TrEMBL record:
<dbReference type="InterPro" id="IPR003824">
    <property type="entry name" value="UppP"/>
</dbReference>
<protein>
    <recommendedName>
        <fullName>Undecaprenyl-diphosphatase</fullName>
        <ecNumber>3.6.1.27</ecNumber>
    </recommendedName>
</protein>
<dbReference type="Pfam" id="PF02673">
    <property type="entry name" value="BacA"/>
</dbReference>
<feature type="transmembrane region" description="Helical">
    <location>
        <begin position="144"/>
        <end position="164"/>
    </location>
</feature>
<dbReference type="GO" id="GO:0008360">
    <property type="term" value="P:regulation of cell shape"/>
</dbReference>
<keyword id="KW-0472">Membrane</keyword>
<comment type="similarity">
    <text>Belongs to the UppP family.</text>
</comment>
<keyword id="KW-1003">Cell membrane</keyword>
<dbReference type="GO" id="GO:0046677">
    <property type="term" value="P:response to antibiotic"/>
</dbReference>
<feature type="transmembrane region" description="Helical">
    <location>
        <begin position="246"/>
        <end position="268"/>
    </location>
</feature>
<keyword id="KW-0573">Peptidoglycan synthesis</keyword>
<feature type="transmembrane region" description="Helical">
    <location>
        <begin position="86"/>
        <end position="106"/>
    </location>
</feature>
<keyword id="KW-0046">Antibiotic resistance</keyword>
<dbReference type="GO" id="GO:0071555">
    <property type="term" value="P:cell wall organization"/>
</dbReference>
<dbReference type="GO" id="GO:0005886">
    <property type="term" value="C:plasma membrane"/>
</dbReference>
<feature type="transmembrane region" description="Helical">
    <location>
        <begin position="209"/>
        <end position="234"/>
    </location>
</feature>
<keyword id="KW-0378">Hydrolase</keyword>
Length: 269
């Protein structure tokens, strides 16, 4: 893998991990056109580390606050104002558990997915973003309920399908479940932390030869690219969520899906 390829793949991961356009779908398409069918496992792992670092940096204050609340709960010194954050922690646990179950059920099917189906899922994601943008902004729904957590966890599990955006599906699910925009965005990206960690652990466990196919400079270049692009794309997306502009990505995803469908089914054989 060249340094240029590493930077491009890192940028794609950083951009698509958080923007509602499906990182797995875009990486699969980029790998297809680069003629690199199997992404080196260590490179893939470090891209996940870089995007995890990006989301932790953006939400550093919020994450630290949740850990403080959890610490007070463990030592039985919770404050009345901790109730909302304790519910958020419980919701993250419930949603992550649901995601794990769905992910395991879909694991083998996702591994064997035909790349020609990915454009269809881009289109589905675009339509989902349009539908969720039509929901009236609920300013009163500030706390995440366990039902909302279960629904969002289900959406995140389905988001393992290449072409189905994890962030797009979880934010949309939270909005459909009644959360306000800012809380839906926050919950989606806090929920991404255990999801990215789980993907990181699974990839390490399944790795046979971590060092195959990539140089140290390519690893570092890809990782830096993923972190920088991921950080700014996440900041950008949070502003769009607040202003209810997620449907803008549908104007990219739907034409992309249609164009790739024409290519794969009409010209690629």
């Amino acid at each position: 893998m060249s340094i240029f390829q590493a930077i491009i793949l890192g940028a794609v991961q950083g951009l698509a991990e958080f923007l509602p356009i499906s990182s797995s779908g875009h990486l699969a398409i980029v790998e297809y056109f680069f003629k690199q069918e199997d992404l080196p496992i260590l490179f893939d792992i470090l891209l996940h580390v870089a995007t995890l670092a990006a989301v932790c940096t953006v939400f550093a204050k919020r994450i630290a606050g949740l850990f403080c609340v959890l610490g007070r709960f463990i030592i039985r010194k919770s404050k009345p104002e901790d109730k909302g954050d304790l519910m958020m922690i419980a919701a993250i646990i419930v949603a992550t558990a649901v995601t794990g179950v769905i992910g395991l059920l879909l694991k083998d099917w996702v591994k064997a997915i035909d790349i020609r189906l990915i454009p269809l899922f881009f289109i589905i994601t675009g339509l989902l973003l349009i539908a969720s943008s039509k929901i009236k902004h609920n300013k009163s729904a500030k706390n995440v309920t366990l039902l909302t957590a279960a629904i969002t966890g289900l959406a995140q599990g389905i988001g393992v399908i290449p072409g189905i955006s994890r962030s797009g599906s979880t934010i949309s699910a939270s909005l459909f479940a009644g959360l306000d925009r800012e809380k839906a965005g926050e919950f989606s990206f806090l929920l991404s932390i255990p999801a990215i960690l789980a993907a990181f652990i699974l990839e390490i466990k399944s790795a046979d030869n971590l060092l195959a196919g990539v140089s140290p400079i390519s690893l570092i270049s890809g990782m830096i690219s993923a972190f920088v692009v991921g950080y700014f794309s996440l900041r950008f997306l949070l502003k769009l969520i607040k202003n209810g502009k997620l449907m803008y990505f549908a104007f990219y995803l739907i034409p992309l899906g249609l164009g790739l469908s024409i290519y794969f089914w009409g010209f690629a054989g």
